[in-house]
Design brief:
Aminopeptidase, 2 domains, 25% strand, Alpha-Beta Plaits
Length: 397
Amino acid sequence: MTLKVRDLAEQFAPRLIEFRRDLHMHPELSWKEFRTTEKIKGILRELDIEVVETGLETGVVGLVRGAEDGPTIALRGDIDALPVEEQNDVPYKSRVPGVMHACGHDSHATSLLGAAMILASIREELRGNVKFLFQPAEEVNEGAKRMMEERVLENPSVDAIFGLHCHPDIPAGQVGVKEGPLMAAVDTVFIDVEGVGGHGAIPDRTVDPNVATAMIIMALQTVVSRNVSPLEPVVVTIGTIKAGTANNIIPDRVHMKGTVRSFAPEVWERLPGLLERVVTHTAKSMGAEAKLTYRRDLPAVLNEERMTAVARRAVVKVAGPDAPVVPTPSMDGEDFAIFQREVPGCFVWLGVGNEERGISSQWHNPTFDIDEGALPLGAATLAQCAIDAIHHFREGR
């Protein structure tokens, strides 16, 4: 069946490229993926793949039932674009002003659709079921949560899940596969610092929240350097600071917003308390008061051992022993992690870089693009993961 999967992926390559370019020319922002949704539904129905109704206006769930009843494996690809003005000079350049597939979700949706084409072609050989989750709103950290609320991993119940993200640092033809931490947990912090305002020339009659804010920002880095093991990656970044109305007025208050990233679940649990201590006591040392609001956005992408082994073998089967590479984890976040909290899964990075052709721009860059020769491999990888995972659960290994 492996040769058949690879051959089918290559056979479908022209259509996959056509589909990807269509999505790239017509990108849609989170929760506005209406055209993309209808396009995918039409192709799934053309393939005689059941379209499962959800309570969502955008996004699609497809289902292929195999010839035999058995395990159900989910495959996921996201479909939303970003508010970025494309700067590439290519025939398939975005036709929507200020909107672009700058994170490669068009390639993810295409790889998933290619997997659906492959698996629909061999459904009589499947000994289980495969669900296809074309997920909306990944860029705003909401799509996976809403899909879970709609119980997309039920009826039939999903045993494992696989997904991919394109990566420009990995050459086309290779796939990054890594057990354990791959992408970080994403948290958001809101900090309000209260002081006593007054004239900038009479600072001794005030409690300057700007100075307290500066001290808090510096002190927060001690959470990373002195409260967490140097072997555990953590990032604390304050991205916005809002305060004041004039150059000679000390304000009453400052509002900050930042992001916190981590991998280890035990560190993730400790971080709110650590930041709270630093924020409140640093402010008090300056005579001010501060309040921290800590919001959990996403857990970390933690690839499960057995499913990672399945994914690695699948990549070898469809692309050879040199295709899998062990990638360096990223502090970026991914809401695929929401699904992984419910069922074992593996998230891989599909290599799409091509230095010789100048395809190397990073995610969210206005010149981001992919080597489209990677699309058949993305489709074959997902399809083979589903096939091998079904076999894994049937054999009880």
